[in-house]
Task: inverse folding
C-alpha cells in the first residue's frame, strides 16, 4: 500500500474517533450517598482526667475559627435630621444687628437653649425674647443665651443688636441651638454684618458737547478726514501729470502730423550698456566671531547670576514649608466658614470648664463640617488640635468626644459626599490658660484651617 494511502486512512480513523467522542453525551454527576448526607449524632466528649473544659473547636456546632469581619467601605447613614434648625441673617441697620430664626419641625414642643457668640470687644445693646448676656465659660468673649420652649411646627425670631463694635468692618456672630442642658448642639448657623457703603454724590450731567469723548474725538476725526482728502487729491494730481508726460513721449518719435509711417522707427538690435553686477557686501569674519562670543558670554553671565540669587535666597535655618501639602492653609476668626482641600470647617463656639483643683480640664468646641468633594472622606481625631500658650498642643480626646456625641464615634466612618454635620469635639487640656488656636484638617497631607479663639 502506498504511503500516501496509509496516511489518509490513519487520518480518517483519527477524525472518526473525534466525532464519536463529540457525540457521546456527558455522564451525569454521581448522586450523593444518602447515608453520607444524614447528620451524624453529636457525641459528647468524655471528660479528661485533668478536668479541663473542652476547647470551642471541640464543641458541637461551633466553628473552628471566628468568621472574618468585613471592613466597612461605605459611610454610615447620616444622623437623623434634628428637630430644631437655626438660620441667622444680618439686619440692614447702621449698627451690627442680627435676626435669629429658630424652627421646630417636630410635632411636639422642644425645650432648647439658644446661644449667640459675640465678637471680641463688642457688647449687646438690644436683646429680645428675654435673652441674657454673659461670659463664655473659660473664655474672654461674651454671649447671649435664651432658654425657650419651642411650640410644635413653629418659627421663633430673636433679635440682637451690638454696641462698641468696630465700625466699617464686617462683624460675624454665630448662633447655635442646644439641648435643654446646653451640651449637645441641634444646629448652628452664622452671619456676617457689613456696613452699608456710603452713598456716592452724583455730579449733574454735562452737555454732550462738553464731554471729554466729544471734545477729543471730533478734532481727531476732522484731522483724519482732512488728511485722507489731501492724500486722495495729491494722488489724483500725480496720475494726471504722469498721463500727460506719457502722451508727450509717444508723439515725439512720429513724423509730421503724427503719422506713424514717417520717421525712423525702431532700430534693431538696440545697443545696451553693460551693467556692472553689484557685489553683496558681507560683514567681516572678525565681527561675526566677536558678536557670537559676546552673546554667549551674556547668556552664561545671566544664567549664573540667576542661579546665584536663587541659591543665596535659600534660608537654611527656616522651618520646613508646606510643599508636601495639597492646597494652602487658611486662617480666620470664629463663625467664618474656612475651606481646605476636602472639608469646610466652621467653628461656632469654644467653651472650657472652669479651672479647679484638678490640673486637667475639658474644652468643648462646637464645629460644623461639610464635605465639599464628590466622594466619601474620612477624618481622624489625632489630626484635630488645640494650641495652648507657649506653642504646646493637644489632640482630640476621642473617648470624651464619643461620650459628648451620645456614644457615637464620629471618626469611625467617613463623611458622605456633600453632607454637613454639627458636632462637639472635646479636648483635655492642662493649665489655667484658655486655648489660643484651633487647628482642623481632613487628612495628613491637608494644610487644614486655623481658627483664633478669643
Result:
Amino acid at each position: 500500500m502506498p504511503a500516501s494511502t496509509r496516511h489518509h486512512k490513519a487520518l480518517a480513523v483519527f477524525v472518526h474517533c473525534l466525532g464519536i467522542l463529540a457525540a457521546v453525551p456527558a455522564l451525569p454527576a454521581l448522586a450523593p450517598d444518602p447515608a453520607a448526607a444524614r447528620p451524624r449524632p453529636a457525641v459528647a466528649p468524655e471528660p479528661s482526667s485533668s478536668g479541663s473544659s473542652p476547647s470551642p473547636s471541640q464543641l458541637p456546632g461551633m466553628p473552628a475559627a471566628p468568621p472574618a469581619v468585613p471592613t466597612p467601605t461605605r459611610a454610615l447613614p447620616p444622623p437623623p435630621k434634628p428637630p430644631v434648625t437655626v438660620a441667622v441673617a444680618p439686619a440692614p441697620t447702621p449698627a451690627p444687628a442680627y435676626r435669629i430664626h429658630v424652627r421646630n419641625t417636630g410635632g411636639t414642643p422642644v425645650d432648647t437653649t439658644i446661644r449667640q457668640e459675640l465678637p471680641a470687644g463688642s457688647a449687646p445693646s438690644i436683646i429680645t425674647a428675654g435673652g441674657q448676656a454673659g461670659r463664655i465659660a473659660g473664655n474672654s468673649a461674651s454671649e447671649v443665651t435664651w432658654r425657650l420652649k419651642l411650640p410644635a411646627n413653629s418659627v421663633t425670631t430673636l433679635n440682637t443688636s451690638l454696641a462698641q463694635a468696630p465700625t466699617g468692618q464686617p462683624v460675624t456672630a454665630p448662633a447655635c441651638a442646644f439641648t435643654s442642658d446646653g451640651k449637645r448642639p441641634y444646629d448652628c448657623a452664622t452671619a456676617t454684618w457689613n456696613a452699608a457703603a456710603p452713598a456716592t454724590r452724583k455730579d449733574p450731567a454735562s452737555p454732550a458737547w462738553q464731554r471729554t469723548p466729544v471734545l477729543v474725538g471730533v478734532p481727531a476725526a476732522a484731522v483724519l478726514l482732512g488728511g485722507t482728502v489731501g492724500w486722495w487729491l495729491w494722488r489724483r494730481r500725480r496720475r494726471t501729470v504722469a498721463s500727460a508726460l506719457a502722451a508727450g513721449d509717444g508723439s515725439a518719435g512720429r513724423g509730421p502730423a503724427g503719422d506713424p509711417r514717417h520717421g525712423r522707427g525702431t532700430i534693431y538690435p538696440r545697443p545696451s550698456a553693460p551693467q556692472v553686477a553689484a557685489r553683496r557686501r558681507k560683514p567681516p569674519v572678525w565681527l561675526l566671531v566677536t558678536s557670537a562670543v559676546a552673546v554667549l558670554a551674556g547668556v552664561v553671565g545671566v544664567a549664573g547670576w540667576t542661579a546665584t540669587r536663587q541659591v543665596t535666597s535659600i534660608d537654611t535655618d527656616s522651618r520646613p514649608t508646606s510643599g508636601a501639602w495639597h492646597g494652602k492653609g487658611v486662617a480666620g476668626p470664629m463663625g467664618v466658614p474656612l475651606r481646605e482641600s476636602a472639608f469646610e470647617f466652621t467653628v461656632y463656639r469654644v467653651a472650657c470648664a472652669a479651672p479647679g483643683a484638678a490640673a486637667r480640664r475639658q474644652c468643648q468646641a462646637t464645629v460644623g463640617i461639610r464635605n465639599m468633594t464628590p466622594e466619601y472622606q474620612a477624618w481622624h481625631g489625632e489630626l484635630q488640635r488645640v494650641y495652648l500658650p507657649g506653642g504646646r498642643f493637644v489632640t482630640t480626646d476621642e473617648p470624651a468626644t464619643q461620650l459628648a456625641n451620645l456614644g457615637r464615634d464620629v471618626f469611625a466612618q467617613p463623611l458622605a459626599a456633600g453632607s454637613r454635620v454639627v458636632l462637639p469635639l472635646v479636648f483635655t487640656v492642662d493649665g489655667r490658660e484658655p486655648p489660643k488656636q484651633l487647628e482642623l484638617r481632613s487628612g495628613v497631607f491637608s494644610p487644614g484651617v486655623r481658627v483664633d479663639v478669643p
Notes: The CA atoms of residues 331 and 450 lie 5 Å apart. Confidence is low (pLDDT under 50) at residues 26-37, 41-72, 318-322.
